[in-house]
Amino acid sequence: MKKTICLTLCGILALSLFTGCGKSNAKQSVSIYSIIHEEETQALTELFTKKTGIPAKFLRASTGELVNRVRAEKDNPQADILLGGATSYHIQLDKDGALESYRSPVAANLPKYAVAEDGTWTGFCVLSLGIGINEDRYNQKFAGIPVPKTWDDLVNPAYKGEIVLTNPVASSTAYLFVQNQLQRLGWEKGWDYLFNLAGLVGQFPDSGSAPGRLIGTGEYALCVTFLHVVNKYHSDGFKVYTVAPLQSVVDIDCISIMKNTKNLEAAQKFVDFMLSVEAQELMSSIDFTMPVNPEAKGAPGSIPVTQLDLIEYDVNKAAAQKDEVLAKWTAEVK
User: If you placed Cys at 261, which of 17, 70, 80, 136 could pair as Cys (CB 3.0 to 4.6 Å)?
Assistant: First the structure.
């Protein structure tokens, strides 16, 4: 009963945050569903308003929750922008008819992989997967065991209960990891790997930020997450570090405009802003992601894509398989 009341109140709050879409003054503001962290979202929206004079408000939640909201609200959107989330999610929403096509003039300078052919999504930062390690806990628990350098090294029975991996049903980070293994090893061997690893995982949180936090506080020794998440905790003084495994994948955080938005002009200006050098360097300075805009510089400590060992990642396959993969995960893993 308490859970039901809580969910209802959350829904009312979300709707109240976005009340005003479609009213006479709606074109003077932009409303955002944000998958990226609150600190980055707050800084970016404040800079956008400072530069354009357009008020911006946002609701921050997990990938799964916001993607489901966009899909459910496609005929009457309660926000104008979906900020963040890997390409496979935006591709799916495009197929659902939930996204508006927009080709920003800034996108002409971006790499081809960062721009949808139909203009419905555009990448604004590079995301690379890796293994996060708490130095003290690892040395205490696994003295004499070399730190894992590959994805296969992670499936070590000694690590049982000491690994954190987000739930791929809720987190785009974990779904990218699942696809990394399926595309690296093939369908059958990939699932064998995932089943074996799942048996070693101590916690499957929904939040993409949780693994970095949990190893940062020393509750676990290892996690699977984006490299930049752990690098940020390291910069804040936590004794954690990252390993970039061989045969990994990268994806991009994307931005899209909602179909049927009442604030199209303001939404387009926000997309232009997110692709700008200033916005991407601001974001990298906070979270250590790598900018997509080739003219923007990543923050010291961020890891350039050129230094990673990568497989060829098929984003369209990842999008096409999503329902099947998540159904299998839910039925057989969690």
Answer: 80
Give the number of residues written for the chain: 334
What is d(CA 274, CA 187) in angstroms, rounded to the nearest whole number?
36
Contact 128, 246 (CB under 8 A): no
Whole-number Å distance between alpha carbons of 128 and 290 = 9
SS (H, E, C) 208-258: CCHHHHHHHCCCCCEEEEEHHHHHHHHHCCCCEEEECCCCECEEEEEEEEE
**Phi then psi for 134, rounded to 5 degrees?**
-85, 115
- CA geometry: angle 33, 117, 169, nearest 5 deg: 40
Q: Answer positive or negative: Cα dihedral of 155, 160, 165, 169.
A: positive
* Dist CA 138 CA 319 (whole Å): 35
Region of 58 please: left (phi>0), alpha (psi -120 to 50) or beta. Answer: beta
Residue 239 burial (CB count, 10 A): 16
Amino acid making up residue 235: S
User: How many Cβ atoms are within 10 Å of 161's Cβ, its own excluded?
Assistant: 12
The pair of three-digit structure tokens given for residue 121, joined into one six-digit string? 């999504």
Q: What is the pLDDT along the chain (334 residues), one digit of tens a residue?
A: 433 334 333 443 444 444 444 333 344 799 999 999 899 999 999 999 999 999 999 999 988 899 999 999 999 999 999 999 989 899 999 999 999 999 999 999 898 889 999 999 999 999 899 999 999 999 999 999 999 999 999 999 999 999 999 999 988 889 999 999 999 999 999 999 999 999 999 999 998 789 999 999 999 999 999 999 999 899 889 999 999 999 999 889 999 999 999 999 999 999 999 999 999 999 999 989 999 999 999 998 788 888 899 999 998 899 899 999 999 999 999 7
Cα atoms in the 13 Å half-sphere on the side-chain side of 152: 5
Residue 321 DSSP code: T
